[in-house]
Target: 5-methylthioadenosine/S-adenosylhomocysteine deaminase
Amino acid sequence: MKAIDLLIHARWCLPMTGSTDIFEHYALAVHQGHIVALLPQDQADQQFTATQVHRLDDHVLMPGLINNHGHSAMTLFRGLADDLPLMQWLHEHIWPAEQRFVGDAFVEAGSALAVAEMLRGGTTTFSDMYFFPEATARVVDRTGIRASLGMVVIQFPTNWASDVNEYLHKGQALHDKYRHHPRITTNYAPHAPYTVDDATLAQIMVNAEELDVPIQMHIHETVSEIQTSIDNYGKRPLARLKELGLLSPRLIATHMTQLLPEEIADCARAGVHIAHCPESNMKLASGFSPIDAMHQAGLNITIGTDGAASNNDLDMFAEMRQTALLAKAVSGNPSAVPAYSALEMATINGAKALGIAETTGSLAVGKAADMIAVELTDIESVPMYDLASQLVYATGRDKVTDAWVAGKHVLKQKQLTTLDASKILSDAQQWAKTIKASS
Ligand SMILES: CSC[C@H]1O[C@@H](n2cnc3c(O)ncnc32)[C@H](O)[C@@H]1O
Ligand SMILES: [Zn+2]
Model:
């Protein structure tokens, strides 16, 4: 018998390792934060003796979800400015509010609120793009979640940095500080083609190659973005990015609602990843992303919530369902994005885009034990003919009961183990009071 840290017996196991196979009455063995075996329960009991054993007789055990685009601290702006188009929302409400309130303490409180919401909803990894990423990093470090943190660049002064050099310098410092961290990686995060100039984008590409990190950017989010680019540069943003050499497997193009067939082909040829944010795109009326066409072209589609100020939650189960439904509605093809594909987009595809697929995104032996348990025997979950269908079309985040990141039990029977929920709530209420008083 081999001594291990953790053995989880699950009614169902959905490893997301390539085939749609579902394992019934299997057990997952974890040692020193890594998955060491996935095998029938009777065999597991014969082979392993575990310090901790969990029985999930009503649950599916599956990889934790990967939220591939967001602005975690913006949870503190949830509901501050609704029902507006992107540019009016940014210029008249969000950027002024950021100028007033965003600093280290704001980002720490907002990130903690976001991490609490994400873990409760089954997200175990998130990709972030926001100011004061050191504050988010501290929250990630102490709460046990996994994250890829953006080295942001936006070509106007903010409370975080005054010019491109300072943004790049602070980004590099973040990367240097966390490059050996077991759960924190970094990415370059130039805000958008309309807020970053050519020379800076070219520099970011050079730096990204040197540091071997991804680049995430809001791209082709709205019709007006395309028109502004044509007015200022005489070309569409993607044509500009192509000339600058940014179309590559490093790029995670976020939103992508306005696309010509040749742009989809260009991105597919270049190996660009897509971060699809269906709820944010709908709420800001930015447009519909042609997900079926991109999926069929072979692009790696991932899913993100965007910030809670434009969503207004961080619910990856909702985003998976919206992804599958919208793809059908937009393409007129009911076979577009079947349930299993939506699950891939929210798990392994996200890990591939972030360059961490060797660590997370599926329940494969050797990977970190990043996983969630979802209860599937209650009124809303029966009968069950198809596990993937059930998870995408009929399950909400309220069914997530447990989450582990690198084997650490960060959500235990719906209770957060590494965050103080009452402090998070009182900090958020305090910030809301301050923000409300000066609006
Ligand atoms: C450079 S930090 C991120 C920056 O982006 C703003 N933002 C949030 N959501 C969106 C969106 O959908 N499109 C463009 N910009 C967005 C956020 O408020 C920060 O200023
Ligand atoms: Zn965004």
Q: What stands out?
A: The radius of gyration is 21 Å.
